Predict the 3D structure of the following.
Amino acid sequence: MKQLPATKMDTSLLRRSFLKRSSIGSAALMSLLKDSSAGMIKPNESAKCKRVIVLCMAGGPSHLETFDYKPKLEELDGKPMPKSFTEGQQIAQLQGQANNLKVLGPQHQFKKYGKSGQEISAALPNIANKISDDICIIRSMQTEQINHDPAHTFMNTGSIISGRPSMGSWINYGLGSESGNLPGFVVLTSVGGGQSQPIAARQWHSGFLPSQHQGVRLRSKGDPVLYINNPKGVTPDRQKDVIDTIKNLNMIGNQTLKDPEIAARISQYEMAFRMQMSVPELVDFSNEPKHITDLYGTKGADGTFASNCLLARRLAERGVRFIQLYHRGWDHHGGIKKGVEHTAKLVDQASAALVLDLKERGLLDDTLVVWGGEFGRTPMAQGNGRDHHIKAFSMWMAGGGIKPGITYGATDELGYSAEKDIVHVHDFHATMLNLLGIDHEKFTYRYQGRDFRLTDVHGKILKDIII
Amino acid sequence: MKLLTITILVLGTYLLHAEDPDFNSEVRPILASNCFQCHGPDVKARKAKLRLDQREGATRDLGGYRAVSPGQTTESELMKRILSDDPEEIMPPPKTKKHLTIEQKEILRKWITSGADYQDHWAFVRPNKPRVPEIANGPRVKNNIDRFVLARLKLEELEPAAEASPETLIRRVSFSLTGLPPTLEEIDTFLADKAPNAYNKMVDHYLNSPAYGEHMARHWLDLARYADSNGYQYDTERQQWVWRDWVINAYNSNKPFNKFTIEQLAGDLLPQASEHQRLATGFNRNHGITIEGGIIDEEYRTEYVMDRVVTTSQVWMALTMGCARCHDHKFDPISQKEFYQVFHFFNQVPERGANGFAPKQRLTSPLAAAKKTENERKLSQLKKELEKPLNLDALIEQWTSQIALQPKEGWVILSPKTIKSTGGATLSKLDDNSILVGGANSQKDIYEFTAKVTAEKMTAVRLEALTHQTLPGNGPGRHSNSNFVLSEFELTAISIKNPSQSQVVKFARAIADYSQAGYGVSKAIDGTTANSNGWAVDGPTRKAPATAIFTTALPFGYEGGSLLRFRLRHEADFAAHGMGRPRLSVTTDPADALQLQGIPAGIREIATIINQKRTKSQSDRLKKYFLTHHNPNRNLKKRIATIEKQLAASFPETMIMQDMAKPRATHVLNRGQYNEPGERVSAGVPAIFPTMRANNSNRLGFAQWLMDPTHPLTARVAVNRYWQQLFGTGLVKTAEDFGIQGELPSHPELLDWLALEFIRSGWDTKHMYSLLLNSATYRQTSHAGKAAYRNDPENRLLARGPRMRLDAEEIRDSCLASSGLLVNQLGGKSVYPYQPKGLWMELNNRPGYSKEYQQGKGNDLYRRSIYTFWKRTVPSPMLKTFDAPEREFCTTRRSRTNTPLQALALLNGPQFVEAARRLAERMLSKGGQTLNERITYGFRLVTARVPVQSELTLLRSSYTENLKLFETNQSTAHKLLKVGDSPYNTRLNISKLAAMTSVARLLLNLNETVTKG
């Protein structure tokens, strides 16, 4: 007998939804639990690293004062910006003075450092002297968004439309977490050195991916994780008792129900308790030897970039998959000479320390460290500062399968536009996923009828910078 | 497991042996996922001029061959290509990383063999009245919904579940309709009601509760991307809550869905639009708006219009129109040109990209109308009182006699002789002897003033930082953010008799009525300007005057008069932070008697003269001073001002829709870019749908077109969302996408029947909810056993009742309700419940733009969560943790996850610990005499049922154990009870209350408590 069409399609639908549920449903739960195989996919043979630490220099560090030396810029200092560069281009706050653009020469000295002879600004002495041979500098970055908020959105999600998952969420969704006690995607923030542009919590959101893949921000003041501390008057013993009793009550309640969700609920409370036990230990630096705290230049978990870098290492050791640090202090519209000096001072030592420390512990091989902002800054002066700029900026990566001690890509003679080996944000994403053993073209999630990717329909893997 | 295996086997068998594959359910999904990208509706992306989404294109002669030759697989190029192993030939091409399974190829083969019939996509065809399956009335058939569900279950050889217990049912209905748990009175009434229509009455009771409107509105706000902040960079505050109140009111008054729609989309264009019809259009102003500098206006204005098109089509048509922004839709028959034709309707608002808040209007919240009338009545009463004449002379006499008794000299305001600015600012002396600063605003500036005084033993100097309308933001400072930083305040006194005699006056102490944190007034006399230290007054947030007093170590002043030379140094690194309108005074009062304000010495002098001896000008001066500072009407005026302020706040300016008189031209935007306009288009709707009525091609016409009963989508999409809300998953699971890539309905006939019933009822929303809730399907138990959950985890077949974790708002609201803390107050400005300190400023601390979260007090802590201030960039951590969206854009379905962070919030968040304590107080004071009674009382409050013996035993022993511990350690008990702002009931025994609080914490964390079903 022939079935009704409706029934036929429903059966297939049912099967599809069941299969989906059985994999995603449990992965969803497990990604916050310990099984490292809980991700949606298995890393492929290209996998070189297991985790990522992004040092996000929020505000848009000037490439011209950090990693991209332009002698010609020095020569033209104070002279009108050649029109051939700027005509018809989008600029942000300099819009009003499009006819009176002047060149601003590099505000800091550059020198060659290390065996590799990488050219780095004197504003970053630790990165220059200690890790220039460990990092790969990319001088040919480009992005599409000229304002902070959308530029961060683009850097994090590969789209300017808010609501897409951030890279940390994608990676946790894909690979799962290796930590049984901590979330797989952790965010840390610090400020200092320039106008502290706001950062929205949506930058670490999971978008249409299940929301347990969103980043969890660890705070330096108050509870490090929201509500991690027991209520006043409740001892750890009592809390444990509460968790156990809830479990027992839930099991009684489930005798007739037999809802599989109950298992999830019980694990959820047990994991919560384990987090309560492990987070205080995580943020307690007292067992770090002095030479380590000195290396980073920190005294304790005080919310500075330096302490966040040390915390990042501790998170990496504990199996956290994606760690993102924001330092909000690079928006130097005015006073860029002093501004860069000031901000660099707050991040330089600890950035170098993190790479050295990871290396020392053998963790750098499978940890990718990324350093860079959401865009660069104009070669044209904005008073004694520089405006936002999307056609060229620099970033560096280290470890995790990246070739050390090389510089990749180049900008034109004024540092206005990336010219050689242009690296688009999508290419950065494709490369990062490749290092993690994920094929960025196959790694999709269906939402509103479309198979979405972190790299949208773009992205090329930067084979030249991979070991 | 067995059942599942059977299902798959049945399916597998079917796939391999069935005769004719069904186009909609089997063939099109394969073609859509694998072929339409290059051979679909998008003209530009189309390869080899072949389109496979229409029969005509697929069977077209391509020059001696066809992609699909109906009935002839060997003659069909499509078959050759999908079966090929040649990487150059095979389809889909390897580089797309797509490939067809053997089963899929088989389906396509059979489809072509059977004649390659195409069907229209189900959702684009108007629903036809389906035949209702003939099943007789009975306990399992309450209405037609059940007939469709049972017919389907019969095919699967499944039985429906039994009816749930009355306690479960009332709790389920209460949450479904109001988002709150039932009260004990409601439960008892329902349990006691043995009438056959007891259940219907119970449903009606909740449908008529004001909480119904709040709960339904809360779901609508997700769709409407409603928030209390503007999003983007600085995420400042907006006042759209008046619109939110409109939504609550619309649900409570059961506004028919067609009016509900038309008013929100185009209320402003209705003939003689009422205030509330205009207010309704706030729906399409809820998108984010940027205030960031350096943006391109048109780019963002375009984004706002895009947002309206995307949101409107998702909410009413479940269409992913946004996919046609940059190119023709890849799957659905919507061209890029059609996208911009719809865009045209929403492109007519007289708005800008940056600070694009206009058009705005002051409109009254429909929920505040009564309060408004009351306030207006009070106001007119007070104003009448104000008009009554005063016996001024007597009042002044009374006042002056009091002054004469007071010994103090007061402040003498100095009249500066010379005024100078080193930074080149323009200084001008005003009538009140203050110095107004204007003109050049240098990085650093020192003001030098000199003034003559006769007094000798001066003890202190007063510096007032006054405000002025010519200063930025009407504030006290010259910086654009209204602040100043006074680095140092210096004074030299020179003898007038003998100018060679002079002294630098040393200040011992400085006090001020206001100082910014870290910028205390003492920093202005600490002798250094290092690290930019100085006195500042929070100009960005506080646009008010400030006063400082500097007391001297020793009295100063020369016999025969002194010339005082003041230096106000502004030398901080923050550029241009000068004081805007300083005024100086001195006094000879003893330092310990000084007041910041006080009666000026001149006035005091006049006051001591007997009335008859005062000159006319003296009397006038006195009168003027009295009226300014001691006016008996001042209190009255203050009260009037307060009410006026309340009135203004009760209807702030709210953003609404409006069309420009002269329409804005709309162009297709190439690649969706604002700066790449292409062909100009006129308003229109996609050709796949019924045409719009002529002569009405504006936004109103569009809204009416949506509500036309012939529209295939509107009613289906709406009833599917109602279903999703009550059952957890819609009949179409992808409630946001009814297009070709969306999932097919599980019960297509039922969906169509509901859609037509909705239209037939006159778009009566309450009727639809009532229908759904009264079905036997809804009333089934969810206690269906392991196998049922395993075989059909999402309950798509509906063989059991719905069961799901409560939404974020429901969790918080239900804890407030069962603990008795909930403050039921309908509508109004959004409130700020508990939130960990510092969250806002940690992410957004730009001076002048950002503000700290101002946690509310009293009632504001216990309002329903729909009223929680919704900041897009830093949403409420509690709500966010339980999967509330950011509301950056339209959300049709929330995730429902289980994370440890949720457990932490419920276990440790002060809102919940306080609720546990209040629940414990209720249990102890109202729950009865015995421990069993008290625990049962609390248990019923959160779960609606009586605990079983084993539950009771566990809870009892937890209580006993905790009691022992708290009795030996009362200070921990005290600490626990002090969590939260509300005081604990001190008449209760502290250890018992703490022990019961621990039990209540268990209750609030039970799986059953956070689950409906």
User: Anything to note?
Assistant: Chain B touches chain A through 122 residues (CB under 8 Å).
